[in-house]
């Protein structure tokens, strides 16, 4: 399981763990709680090129479908087939077995624009105060 304090976050609730130029991407614990019971995950194709903040994956719950945005530009180099077989992994292990895809960053410096956990939690508090998601 990854340490949430060691990750970088987007305002759209994805996290990334960047190591040797490859980012592992998933959704935050807050996001999986908001989404509720995940019943289907549509992963991006390996080899696809994405831009930072581009929708490239879909997570569906019993109530709605949610686009998942890549935190980094680059090439999708791996996807987590386990979440296709068992979508509830996204709920049970948002920082572990519920990861979604890996992206080989073409501009690793984009990670510097993402939030650390403290700023992400401040963002959540601000969202809650303003009543938006």
Structure description:
This protein has 133 residues and is an alpha+beta fold. The chain has one domain (4-113): RNA polymerase II/Efflux pump adaptor protein, barrel-sandwich hybrid domain (OB fold (Dihydrolipoamide Acetyltransferase, E2P), Beta Barrel), CATH 2.40.50.100. 23% of the residues lie in helices and 33% in strands. It has 4 helices and 9 strands, in the order βββαβββββααβα. The strands form 2 sheets. The chain has a 6-stranded antiparallel β-sheet. It has a 3-stranded antiparallel β-sheet with strand order 4-6-7. It starts with 7 loop residues before the first strand and ends with a helix. The model has no long low-confidence stretch (mean pLDDT 96).
CATH homologous superfamily heading: RNA polymerase II/Efflux pump adaptor protein, barrel-sandwich hybrid domain
- Note the run of SSEs as H and E: EEEHEEEEEHHEH
Structural class: alpha+beta
Number of domains: 1
**CATH fold-level label:** OB fold (Dihydrolipoamide Acetyltransferase, E2P)
Biggest sheet strand line-up = 1-2-3-9-8-5
Give the helix level as a range of percent: 10-25%
Major sheet, described briefly? 6 strands, antiparallel
CATH class: Mainly Beta
Low-pLDDT regions: none
C-alpha geometry: globular
- Number of extended strands: 9
Mean pLDDT: 96
Q: Termini, distance in Å?
A: 26 Å
User: What is the tally of helical segments?
Assistant: 4
Q: How much of the sequence is in beta strands?
A: 25-35%
- Second rung of CATH, namely the architecture: Beta Barrel
Radius of gyration: 14 Å
